[in-house]
User: Fold these one by one.
Assistant:
Number 1:
Amino acid sequence: MSPAPTPAERADRLRALIRHHEHQYYVLDAPEITDGEYDALVRELEAIEREHPELDSPDSPTKRVGGKPREGFQKLAHSSAMLSLDNALDESELRAFDGRVRELLGGADFRYVAELKMDGLSMATRFQGGSFQLAVTRGDGSIGEDVTENARTIRSMPLTVRHTDAFEVRGEVVMNRRAFERLNTDREEQGLARFANPRNAAAGSLRLLETAITASRRLDYYAYFLLNEAGAFLLDSHWESLEWLARQGFKVNPLRRICASVEEALDFCREFDARRDSLPYEIDGVVIKVDSVAQQVALGYTARAPRWAIAFKYAARQVETVVEDILVQVGRTGALTPVAVLEPKVVSGVTVSRATLHNEDEIARLGLQIGDTVVVERSGDVIPKVVRVKELGGTRREFHMPTECPVCHGHIVREEGEAASRCINVSCPARLKESIRHFASRNVLAIDGLGDVLIEHLVESGLVKSVADIYRLQQADLESLERMGPKSAANVCANIARSRLMPMPRVIGALGIRFVGERTAQLLAEHFGSLDLIANATRDELQAAQEVGPKVAEAIFDFFHEPRNLELLERLRAEGLMFRHTVVKREGGPLVGLTFVLTGTLPNLTRDDAKKRIEEAGGKVSGSVSKKTSFVVAGEEAGSKLDKARELGIPVIDEDGLLEKLG
Ligand code: IVH
């Protein structure tokens, strides 16, 4: 046995481990351990640093949580101006740029690198002696603000790198759509104004004096430019620089391409214009750069921008239109959402005639009245929203939240500290329709064919008065409805019957408990194992589950203490829905009794695919290597698990080896 490590050795080891797992999670999106295991490592390191302050270091991953509030930001000059880029607003402008490059390079061969233009804010970062030193916002291009402590909280920012000479990296700070939506939902609940878009949210979050709040905002940093320090080292091409940055641990967008001609660059632009909505973050165009550093130097700069790069801008997703009316929709929880009825306009190929206004406060913030001309923005696949009032209407009319539900005429209340007004009638048909729609939706119980029109008919005809009633529907009931043939009626019935087999996390999701989405439902199921245990848990017991804080615990607790919800629960139980969390294991299979650990990137299979296939073949996948591990499957850039496997003498196989075992 080797002697127990000294605190200094253990701290070093923990930092290396935490860095590795942060890189896997935040940069590569390929976690190897659970969140709980990760937290345990951080807590152990924190304890050592507390007991041995001499071992503490600003590079330590524990410094990502943010310290004391600060007075303000110091102004700092950039090492060289942070220029912006010239824009190409259409294909002919991009071809014209290509013509200029071609001419200036005197007919020499060259190629481009096309990258996504991330919609955030640019930030310069400096590294020296292998560690993160400084982060400065763009500011006016020559002078920015020192946001080092805030940038340290960005999980995808490497705090240590292998290269020890000084270098500077420039990149974009962004907030992805999910983090943005979550932040706005939280703000709405706290009665705060929503951020208009992820870019504003990212900028606001980076410049907070309270670093701990920045840490909670889940920003991301994508590196896109390596400044070559005078003489220290010089890479020959932009592409190589990006690959070098990725090897140093930076997050570099993998959606990039070498293009041999402007036509190939245009293909890239068109391809990502079409995919724009499905990306997890917002982009506003594509940046096209001459790849060779020597050619970049030859092309040089104008006063404003490099001559070797250009931003191909996508069409704005904003239009101006008139708000003809404001309607009120009733959601699943009874929340009333005001919706602007717009004079229809086409925005990048889609006709927009409605836009959400979220709540009364939002209307007040916009200063909007019916009849005003507004700017409406479509972004991602979210419902269009009103950005601002452009011009006051000649005849304008103020909007007032109704005092009774527009659907059931029930009572409306707006609780203290809540942004939303709610219809409190639990059997309001509008709430019922929304509940069924949620119940049947793809990520919940996935009942194909139970769409809006059918739901409308089912509720209006009185066939369905509670969500549970859908399990009582007979084929004949459905056939009696308008536009329902025997075949589709049979299909819907079969799909309803099949939904009884959906695993328990889906059932939890179907209940529509506030704040309980897919992930929380999964974590609750794993922690409690049965719906009854969740229903009977105290607030404290609920909080013992991963990622369940006081607010979520309260919402779950309240849900299961509402008699009508318990009634629904009993009916669903009687219908045979899954109230227990059973991990379905196949009997037999070639890998029964074997435990695998995955590490590194496999050439073809994603980690999820590999895991699924192993489990389908009866094997188990574990997050860490131990004596019980049967095989370690190692791909490229395999990490510490590979070392551990060698240490313990566990056989190591590659993807081919795994496929062979899978048969
Ligand atoms: S290159 C000299 N690459 O777009 C190099 N910029 O209008 C200058 N941006 O200020 C920047 N994604 O904030 C570059 N892949 C990318 C980018 C990108 C977003 C932003 C950046 C810059 C602005 C230029």
Number 2:
Amino acid sequence: MTATFSHKRTDFPDGFLFGAATSATQIEGTAFGGAGASHWDTFALTPGNVVRAETAARACDHYHRWAEDLDLVAAAGFDAYRFSINWARLLPEGMGAPNPAAISFYDRLIDGMLERGMQPFITLYHWDLPSTLAHRGGWANRDITGWFTDYALTVQRRFGDRLASTATLNEPWCVAWLSHFLGLHAPGLRDISAAARAMHFTLTAHAEALAALRAEGAKSLGIVLNFEHIEPASPGDEGAAATEEALFNRWFAEALALGRYPAEALEGLERWLPARWQADLDTIRAPLDWLGVNYYRRALKATAPGSPWPASREVEGPLPKTTMGWEILPDGLADRLTKLAQLFPGLPLYVTENGMSANDHIHDGAVADPERIAYVDAHLAACRAAIAAGVPLKGYFYWSLMDNYEWALGYDKRFGLIHVDSESLKRTPKWSYQAFQHMLLPRTLPSR
Ligand code: IFM
């Protein structure tokens, strides 16, 4: 294993963007700056939901250390920084009057990116739903469409003049299925009817916000979806794998590209979908300016006999794994990018998240993480293969800039290019950070 990547910046097309990604709740510290409560705050305070009941109250204290963190993004040679707004920080009641401290924080943050020559890639919703709206049914209530659109317009009117790009939602599968059917993320429901509604209302909220943002003059609008390379665990498990493929990889992408939901998913969900769902699909299909692709792993699916629909379960596979237990399969990224380029002809794609968690430790002031370097190297090779095959891939963002709050798994799962000490919060760049520096510096500011 080496400490550098085998790729050079010039191996990628002119203007290809390299960036690092984070999200608000995972790094900022929700206790600071007058943020309202989000459903993650209450979820984490409910015993049994989060490992060691860890919360995002302090997180990486990025709220106070943002300038140091942006200096690190710039010093790595990144062209762009993907971050999110905490909805509950900006609008503590979910709607109505913005929090002045939040406006001033995000103003400083965005200006700080521009001063350092980095393009701000904003995500409007990376999971911090204000509790006030959660109490009213959150993503299972059709009204979320209007609440989210009003919030999106507030962001656009305050910050839109300085943004390079806006994503409406991050990973709607997690917002809907992981959180309302599997119960593993806030609000922690295990309810198929709430899950089906959320699978639909994430898309209506995306679509209505997109239209409103366009009417307001916003440019470069997209959405970020997550994908896995799903395969049957054994012969005979093809049906289970096809159902998971439909729920995870096809539901959102096909609704956006084709204005329809896959039959294999409707088989279980149609009876729970809200009234007038078919009529919404025309709006949902409205053109995007780009699509964000989050990809981490392969997942093997098997039939779960005796279990109600979707009657599938995950099986541990034989490939090398990250500390998340995720199987590493870089070819799955090239395959997915190629499929998406066919589904969305001509649409610019970005890898908006890709990365690995590892057991990283500081020795003699350094963090050696050659496995992460190898992981990124192999996924960058997959990006190049996709580009060579004609995929209009425009950028790659590593998840994550720094070790942070990995939701229900707390602080142990370290995805960062920068090690964050759990007590002192001291930042220590890892070898992988230096590998990016080596590949990206000197930075030439890309033309867009
Ligand atoms: O940490 C998360 C992020 O919030 C969304 N995508 C996957 C990452 C790793 O699990």
Number 3:
Amino acid sequence: MGYRSIMVGTDGSETATRAVRAATTLAKSFMGAQVQIVCAHGAGGVDEEVAKEVLRYAREAVRAQGLETRTHMRAGDPDSVITELAERQGADLIVVGNVGMGKARRFKLGGIAEQVAHGAPCDVLIVHTTEGDERTEPYRRVVIGTDGSATATEAARKGFELAEVTDATVTLVYVGDPLIGAIVLEQTAADRPGSATVNSRVEDGDPAERIVEIAGKDAADLVVVGNKGFAGARRYLLGSIPVKVAHESPTDVLVAKTVGRSIDDLAPGHGGLVDVGGRKLAVYKAEDGSVVALSPRCQHMGCTVDWNDADQTWDCPCHGSRYARDGEVIKGPAKKNLDREELVEPSVG
Ligand code: FES
């Protein structure tokens, strides 16, 4: 996972300022992550002069933490401005407060939750900004919801990797049949990257309600769910579980995007994690269009490596292993090269 570019929206309100602080805290956990701060003005946002001032204040606050930052000011509705910019700038995480920004503030979560349900370009962290102390520490207790589907398993992997980076314990929750749940949870925990301590829970009832309830009981500070609905909830609108959890959880909520880019989305001379026939691969595309496909599983403890465009390497966020474009290990603790993968479908790019 290894977030490198974290985009956060602010309108200068106290709740948005808390979201900026949460983004800063997370960026510090992922050493070297850049914080991109966005302020929308006009139609749905603040006026232009205020936007400039809001961005100046936020930029100084982030820089004071020793982090690299960029600011963006755009006219338009805050929710669309953030998601469009995230797409264009290649952000891998959007951070927003759980109270909408600008005119959207009258709706809890604004339109962001809907964007999440219908395809934000990256993961979205919804920061619980309405009550209690604000976050200045990394996450320590993480609740991950899963139904055992491939997409939920992918979301769980992201949750485990985040737990590894922040040294958190994990409560893994399955809602549904106890026998199936026991198998799903055992498998998910056994395949987890890293070495986070895991407590498993099989629950009955409404998935979103149970997850929210457990987060409260466990005094968790983060819930992780995938951006697709759970199996038991397919009769509802796709994405209703993450939206419901985001609305009701007493914690921050990470909605993990589980469907990625394809090889055709990679520009020549760049690498990235892509979906190939349902598999996630680490692919580098050379200037001549030829590609190198690797398993993204770090050879140390199985976290997912991510592309570092500045150094043209594959870096692991968990304990700092680094690999060359062709998967050769450059820096440990990993001792073996990334595995080569066959491409089932040749690239057309
Ligand atoms: Fe430890 Fe990658 S899992 S460095």
Number 4:
Amino acid sequence: MRTPIIAGNWKMNKTIAEATALVREMRRELNEIEGVEKVLCPPFTALSAVAELLQATKIKLGAQEMHCEEKGAFTGAISPLMLKELCQYVIIGHSERRKYFGETDEGVNRKVKVAFQHGLIPIICVGENLEQNEAGQTEEWVSGQVRAALDGLAAEQVKELVMAYEPIWAIGTGKPATAAGANAIIGLVIRGTVASMFGEDAAQAVRVQYGGSVKPANVVEFMTQPEIDGALVGGACLAADKFVAIARLAAEIKGTHK
Ligand code: 13P
């Protein structure tokens, strides 16, 4: 049985002071929610402060990005060695990294391998843009992204990692994918591609989140879908009450303690 996972991608939001306030506001309630994994992904600058606040809780910490080298002359970059002291997870290949920062499928694949070398669990983002969606290219595109991201991994690693299906047209638009549509892409395309590369066991074990305009009012629809194992939440994770509500609803529907 797959443990559901609700992660909040804070993106470029929250100073250290604001991050601390947000975590203090939701920490107790979030921690008490059982049967789902809860992950916060604040910006790099707030990781250390948030890590301290999460000590003695079961809430996990993730970074939003990572460089593939351990150290060296890469001005402005953050390495896996730096992150492994703080985080359990790292988001790799978010569409905003691909769009604004030149992230490539090759880069994603390299970072995924490096994450495993350092004991970090990657949350790998894939998803098509509106044009591709309207042209009927979603399946081919997403399958290609999955193939590229997972190339050369071992099946045991694939079983541990997390994928997030985030259609670009649903991110920050208030227009989520339909739950049935996301379920189909995750089941047929993402798990289908994983099955063809690593076998059915890996395809059934890998956890796949949906991301794109998830909020308390629609999370139930997504969580009642059999192929969807959780959510990668952007905007709604910046409000304590919303993120707690999302995690709580996910636990009620999918929680592994039931
Ligand atoms: P929104 O929830 O704001 O649409 O963002 C989704 C996302 O990109 C999470 O990584």
